[in-house]
Write a structure and sequence with these properties.
By secondary structure, the protein is α/β, with parallel strands linked by helices. The protein is globular, with a radius of gyration of 21 Å. The protein has a four-stranded parallel sheet, sandwiched between helices. The chain has a two-stranded antiparallel ribbon with strand order 3-4. The two termini are 33 Å apart.
Length: 382
């Protein structure tokens, strides 16, 4: 009944990808200290800027590109199906081209105005970690293996608060042990990224317990997996060209203090991205980009209750601007919400072009955490 059209946004895929080689498995020290290592980031910007204006990769530009493609292909209306950053992109599209949208399916919702990247990461990560600690304490096996998980994690956070910690980690394909300095900035955010999915998150109590005891090898493996995996998934240059124009300029010191208070991350994540954006140096987006998006089109939003990067309260708040919208909150789900019952409802929504008959009640509680791990066996294969 539908054609499925995949489009590379500006700066991604095969469309002049803005990719930066920020991380090398042979040089872990650089990415154990900084999320965006200064020297590599400056070199990348200099190389990419020779052939592109790095300010011309914003969401507004991408939304207008997509509408040009829609028109060229002859579709009067399109269904927009987005995940994570794709949800912000498609909400901007419906704002700019409202008459060309049939419906929107959004998972891991990052609505403009409500979620400013990376402002909410500290609070979202703290909420996800709190639930992980509670679930571990309620699970007999996890409680038996890691009875002091909550206290030991707090002690580990205090350890990194004093400055970078010298840790022994495995490096390279030969798994050679070497000593590197690990900063709180990297420790906290790579942990947050591990909480994106409940598969890797199941290893966190074990990783924390080993690090607390002075064995940092599992923690180093988690950081390398998150850093290199995310770098392959998201072109760093494209990410910075968007967020340094549309998000970071709108963050105030009061915002940072409010959202970081009482969290294990503190302001480190925001500070890191502000520093990277000063190097990336692109034009600020118009302030109207951060206005709430309103639409009469049918909207179905799927959020995970444990999501550390697009916290579910923001899809709930955005729902007030979607008179024909509905939200599914999945218990025990994180940023990955592709559970079978949710996908069945998504298909029904697209076919019906309406949220009216979606029965979300039973689906919201059908998801369960995987068993907590007691070793690193299988880590990275989820």
């Amino acid at each position: 009944r539908y054609d499925v059209v995949f489009v590379d946004n500006r700066g991604t895929g095969l469309s002049h990808e803005l990719r930066c080689a920020l991380f090398s498995a042979t040089d872990p020290q650089s990415y154990f200290l900084q999320e965006w290592p200064d020297e590599r980031l400056r070199a990348c910007r200099s190389a990419l800027a020779k052939n592109a204006d790095l300010s011309d990769y914003t969401t507004d530009d991408a939304a207008d590109d997509l509408d040009d493609i829609r028109a060229a292909l002859g579709y009067p209306k399109i269904v927009l199906s987005g995940i994570s950053g794709g949800t912000a992109f498609f909400l901007d599209y419906v704002r700019r081209h409202p008459h060309n949208v049939e419906s929107l399916l959004l998972q891991g919702v990052a609505p403009p105005h409500f979620l400013i990247i990376p402002l909410e990461d500290a609070r979202g990560a703290q909420a996800a970690m709190d639930r992980l600690e509670t679930d571990c304490a309620a699970d007999p096996a996890c409680r038996s293996h890691f009875p002091d998980f909550r206290a030991h994690f707090a002690a580990l956070v205090r350890r990194f608060a004093g400055g970078p910690v010298a840790v022994r980690v495995e490096s390279g394909s030969a798994h050679e042990l070497r000593t590197v300095l690990l900063s709180k900035e990297v420790f906290a955010d790579r942990l947050r990224q591990t909480l994106y999915s409940n598969g890797p998150a199941a290893y966190v109590p074990y990783i924390v317990e080993r690090a607390y005891a002075g064995d940092y090898v599992p923690l180093g493996r988690m950081i390398e997996y998150s850093a290199i995996g995310l770098d392959r998934l998201v072109p760093a240059g494209a990410n910075l060209s968007v967020t340094c124009a549309e998000d970071v300029p709108f963050i105030t010191a009061a915002d940072v203090a409010r959202t970081s208070a009482g969290t294990f991350m503190g302001p480190s994540r925001v500070n890191a991205q502000q520093h990277a954006c000063a190097i990336w140096n692109v034009r600020r987006a118009p302030s109207g980009f951060q206005d709430p998006v309103r639409t009469m089109a049918p909207v179905f939003m799927i959020s995970g209750a444990d999501d550390p990067t697009t916290p579910p309260e923001f899809s709930a708040e955005a729902l007030t601007y979607f008179p024909n919208g509905k939200r599914l909150l999945i218990a025990n789900a994180s940023h990955d919400t592709g559970v079978p019952c949710a996908m069945a409802l998504a298909e029904q929504f697209i076919r019906d072009r309406s949220v009216r008959d979606l029965k979300t009640g039973s689906c919201s509680a059908m998801n369960h955490r995987p068993a907590f791990a007691t070793s690193m066996a299988g880590f990275g294969t989820q």
